[in-house]
Amino acid sequence: MKIKIISLVCVTLLFFALMAALSLTARDVHQSRLPHVTAARLTRESFSQGPGSVRYRQTAIPKELYHSGDIYIITSRSVNGESRDFAKKVDIEIGLEIDGFYEVTHGLLGHDYVIFSTDRPLDDGDEVLVIQSFTNP
Question: The pTM is what?
């Protein structure tokens, strides 16, 4: 009888130790399974309609990013009381082009963080882990 009680106590302690270890590492395991992305704010470039016309500064997207496929921005939401980052697919309209950039006329705001790179394909609404973010001048 004494061996059964000792065995039961040992199994119970082992179970609770395992649950504590899983609880402490759950966030790391969750983050390792998320797409890792790099995001940045877009630059503002000088555009003009034609020779002698007024120049103006407008948010601009690099041509290679525009042509690479879908454009995603980072949005934050509260999940279980914790702020998390998500990829949101955006449709943008472009205008003039200069020196490797297109003018963004609709679909992005200057303060939006645009995803420049990811380690795996994204879908609209995917939770992501931002591994680097920066602001372009």
Answer: 0.79
